[in-house]
Design a protein that fits this description.
Helix 12 crosses helix 15 and helix 16 packs antiparallel against helix 18. Strands 1, 2, 8, 9, 10, 11, 17 and 18 form an 8-stranded mixed β-sheet that branches. The two termini are about 50 Å apart. The protein is an alpha/beta fold. It contains 28 helices and 18 strands. The structure holds flavin-adenine dinucleotide. Flavin-adenine dinucleotide (FAD) binds next to helix 2, strand 9, strand 12, strand 16 and helix 7.
Length: about 750
């Protein structure tokens, strides 16, 4: 296959005789993404590796060809990206809900993108890279069975060449990357054909597409032949460039009475009928189907001398059907484990235990939750369906969490550090290490217990929010005393969890829904919001109870106060004549609690009771300065899915809007808003009045009060940093110089 990649054409293939004569460090069965990734990682570590596949390459493989950004980072590490520069880039995911329009979930980072690469090309590139790095390759060689020693440890495989000759390959480790139907997993007793965690998908290529967006398009929901019943399934159309696309359907349940080929034909009809850009599509080439296996369980991923990788281990996302990135990552983990055990002289059973633990830590939560929650695919569909029109930030986060969950390996801690480093100056204190540790704890908690929530932490990545994360304020103020690292880090983690829990629950919209219709049914987005909030609060309690139990009551009472504040806000919603002072008092009780609390807790930790009052004042005024300034800034932004717009659509007027509404003569805009409840229109009509009141006076007053409250603090890094944060709350000017 020519035309892509800087790969040599003339690398020699292994011969069966050579392959059998050698004792390999690893015998890798299957040269898909999982097998080739393992081979690359092992050869880079100087290991002797043979890769076999029953097919010759390049070979096709049934797949949607979509690679999300976590797959991209794996490919980057493997050195494959330069070979893929001609392939179709995508900017994120577009979800269509039939008859209800679409929503885009774009990758947010600067270098974030995805790719659509036909597997004919991708798998060949990966294999070529493995061979270029030194892996031997034996094509047209089908592994038939495992070879074991008297203790039951796997020591190799028996395989059959296409001409019928057999060959025995032996090595320290067998890595089975032989796909969803894994013969070797079955031979080891690691896989019965499951009823749960098993689906089917079918894809074809089409040409004749019109102007399609550079996005992975997912079409929901699909219905049965009668067009009456929703199926646990989805359709996709992924652009492959020049008016072509990979289109297909996935059915997330085996027992379900639906035929995937009929579903595929129906889906093509829907595409042609409902989507103008696909109205002229024609199938080109053959359609290919294959199983989707998402029944991963760590205890079934390894056996002494045998590690399962990718689809063989059931590692396909039960949420999205994505499997390439899991195959690449598990391949790399299998290679690292094998290499480490060879280096330390550990037996292959140790490698099996280590690998199962590693995979469990990395994926078990995601798959357990995914399989439970997305059973019959109703969960995602219901959350999407119930929140599709909602602009609530919490719903946006939850939609992203269930749909684009691939950020589970995210690097939250370093993002946080990068964003705050120019503002805080405590060179004598290990703020960088502390923040990194808190980030790692948060990551670990959500990754193992409830991984898709990692996305919620990413939501706090925006620089101007990160600077006011409670953990930062708590750590800074705790530096006023000599606090044990473990204690302050646990307190910061617990507080961060409680804060996110509060955010999740305070954003729900059940109250409005219930008010709007007498028979309102519970909303799935709200249910998930409440569940998420409860989970986070329980975790906050657990983390705090272990290392800083004395602080837990304060956290809980601040939460209670914040909740009361929220209830008071909701009770007085839709009142444009409310007194500004009252609104500020509500803000003080509700959100400002999360600025006040960390400062107070920091003082408690540092045993600086004398400074507690000052820090409390500082925190509360800082919170008000920040929140009021946010509201003023929001007036200049289009009301998208910002907390501001969502508050407004819930009838909670910010102070600037309240002032403008009261100032506006005749009250036409307010009346229009109260009848249409349309934030964009309301803001447009109010804009002359809001221009008048935008003076930044109030935020500046609170900023000054915050800074004044710092006067009893000893001079030094802590006071300087807190003062800089207060200035930043209003000016949003970040010094250029980094100090951490
Ligand atoms: C229709 C469909 C659409 C999909 N769409 C996407 C998508 O858009 N994005 C995404 O990320 N994932 C998608 N997936 C999932 C993805 O295809 C798999 O998760 C991925 O291919 C797993 O890689 P792997 O290396 O584990 O296995 P595979 O890619 O299946 O590779 C296994 C290899 O082992 C070889 N083999 C099998 N048995 C033997 C044997 N006994 N001896 C020797 N060799 C053997 C095979 O020839 C093959 O080359 C889709 C799956 C399907 C079915």
């Amino acid at each position: 296959m020519d035309g892509y990649g800087p790969f040599a054409e003339d690398l020699p293939l292994a011969t069966p005789a050579e392959a059998a004569a050698e004792t390999w460090d690893a015998v890798i069965v299957g040269a898909g993404p999982g097998g080739s990734a393992a081979a690359i990682e092992l050869t880079r570590r100087g290991r002797k590796v043979i890769l076999i596949d029953r097919e010759d390459f390049p070979r096709d493989k049934s797949c949607g060809d979509g690679i999300t950004r976590s797959g991209i980072s794996q490919l980057k590490r493997l050195g494959i990206l330069p070979a893929l520069t001609d392939q179709q880039e995508v900017e994120g995911v577009r979800v269509h809900m039939r008859n209800r329009g679409h929503r885009d979930f774009r990758y947010e980072g600067e270098d974030d993108y995805g790719l659509v690469v036909p597997r004919l090309i991708l798998d060949d590139c990966l294999l070529r890279q493995a061979r270029a790095e030194g892996a031997a390759f034996l094509p047209k060689c089908r592994a038939d069975d495992l070879v074991t020693d008297e203790s039951g440890t796997v020591t190799g495989v028996t395989a059959r060449m296409q001409d019928g000759t057999t060959v025995v390959l032996t090595g320290y480790m067998v890595i089975a990357a032989d796909g969803a139907a894994s013969r070797l997993a079955k031979a080891a007793g690691l896989r019965e054909t499951p009823e749960q965690g098993y689906g089917t998908a079918l894809r074809g290529y089409v040409d004749g597409c019109g102007d399609t967006p550079p996005l992975l398009e997912i079409m929901l929901p699909l219905t049965d032949v009668t067009d009456r019943y929703l199926l646990p399934s989805y359709g996709w159309a992924f652009p492959t460039g020049k008016g072509t696309a990979n289109v297909g359907v996935g059915l997330f349940c085996r027992a379900f009475d639906a035929n995937v080929r009929t579903l595929f034909d129906q889906f093509l009809d829907v595409l042609r009928k409902d989507y103008p850009e696909y109205s002229g599509i024609q199938l080109s080439g053959t359609t290919l189907g294959a199983p989707l296996r998402f029944d991963f369980a760590p205890e079934r991923a390894a056996h002494s001398g045998l590690l399962l990788v990718g689809d063989a281990a059931g590692l396909i996302s039960p949420f999205t059907g994505e499997g390439i990135s899991f195959a690449l990552e598990s391949g790399a983990l299998a290679a690292q484990t094998t290499d480490r055990c060879l280096r330390t002289g550990a037996g292959p059973w140790v490698a099996a235990d280590d690998y199962a633990l590693l995979l469990g830590d990395r994926f078990a939560g995601y798959f357990t939750l995914g399989n439970r929650a997305s059973r019959r695919y109703e969960f995602i569909w219901r959350v999407l369906d119930d929140t599709f029109e909602s602009e609530k930030p919490v719903h946006n986060m939850l939609r992203r969490a269930v749909l684009v969950p691939e950020g589970t390996g995210g690097d939250v801690e370093s993002a946080m550090l990068d964003d705050v480093s120019p503002l805080v100056r405590v060179p004598e204190m290990p703020l960088g290490d502390d923040l990194r540790d808190v980030g790692a704890r948060l990551n670990h908690i959500v990754r193992t217990d409830w991984p898709f929530l990692t996305r919620m932490f990413f939501a706090g990545k925006r620089a101007d929010m990160v600077a006011f994360r409670p953990s930062l304020l708590l750590l800074l103020t705790s530096y006023l005393g000599d606090v044990e690292a473990k204690r302050r880090r646990a307190a910061a983690t617990a507080l961060e969890l409680a804060y996110l829990g509060f955010l999740a629950q305070s954003g729900i919209r059940g109250i409005e829904a219930a008010a709007a219709t007498a028979d309102a049914t519970a909303n799935w987005g709200d249910k998930l919001g409440i569940l998420t909030g409860d989970y986070l609060l329980a975790k906050a309690h657990e983390v705090g109870a272990r290392d800083c139990p004395d602080l837990v009551p304060s956290i809980l009472s601040a939460m209670a106060s914040a909740c009361e504040g929220r209830v008071s806000e909701l009770r007085t919603a839709w009142q444009p004549d409310m007194a500004v002072e009252k609104r500020i008092a509500q803000m003080r009780q509700c959100m400002a609690a999360f600025f006040r609390l960390p400062c107070e807790l920091g003082a408690m930790l540092a045993e600086q009771n004398d400074l507690s009052g000052a820090l409390r004042d500082y925190g509360e005024n800082l919170g008000l300065a920040y929140l009021l300034n946010e509201d003023e800034l929001a007036l200049d932004r289009p009301p998208g899915s910002t907390p501001f717009a969502s508050d407004l659509s819930s009838g909670l007027f910010s102070v600037p809007v309240l002032e403008a509404a009261q100032r506006q003569t005749g009250g036409a805009a307010v009346r229009a808003f109260l009848s249409h409840r349309d934030p964009a229109r309301f803001l447009a009509e109010l804009s002359p009045a809001t221009r008048h009141i935008k003076r930044r006076k109030l935020p500046e007053e609170y900023r000054d009060q915050a800074i004044a409250a710092l006067s009893p603090l000893p001079r030094g890094g802590v006071a300087k940093s807190l003062s800089a944060l207060a200035g930043y709350a209003v000016s949003r000017q970040v010094p250029k110089r980094r100090v951490l």
